[in-house]
Amino acid sequence: MEGRVKNIALIGFMGSGKSAVGKRLARKLGYDFVDTDKEIERKNGRLIRQIWKEKGEEYFRQIESTVIKEVTMAKNKVIACGGGAVLDPVNIQFIKESCLVVYLKATSNQLYQRLKYATDRPLLNVPDAQKEIRRLLGAREKAYHEVSDLIVDTSGLTVDGVVDQIMSRIKQNGEFPEGR
Length: 180
Ligand code: S3P
Prior knowledge:
This protein has helices at 18-29, 36-44, 48-73, 89-98, 108-115, 129-147, 159-172, and strands spanning 7-11, 32-35, 77-80, 99-105, 150-153. By secondary structure, the protein is of the alpha/beta class. α2 (36-44) crosses α3 and α3 crosses α4.
């Protein structure tokens, strides 16, 4: 996207801080915050892990795509996208059309440290979650890079540190959104 942006989409692996960063960034910009996972749960009246268990990943991905389409139609939103959302070309198209896309990058070790006690990520409900994080990140990293307009290396940064990086980079690029 060129010039002023309608929305900001945060992408990256599970545990990369999209929700925490997104909430604070939205507050700073006077934007609404929306988390695609929470929207999916709200629409279905069920937690992600229940949807996954009862109806499977394919069904989950279909609702995820519907949600991505809906939320990217709006403006003045900071959108935290589920970690797998940018693997679908149609989702990518909707996201790229209306959002400045920021990739929150972290290493597989950092992600494992943040996710090792999480019970709400069905993809990591496997005997060796650390290995699975490495495998999935390896398979997705190229897509995260290609889809993003900005990459923020979150290593050693606090949530506020990441928000500051995003703010200064969007200002620098002349893409500072108008807010309300
Ligand atoms: C997924 C990431 C999760 C959630 C679902 C699948 C993925 O979102 O959408 O468990 O495929 O990486 P977060 O990235 O917000 O944890």
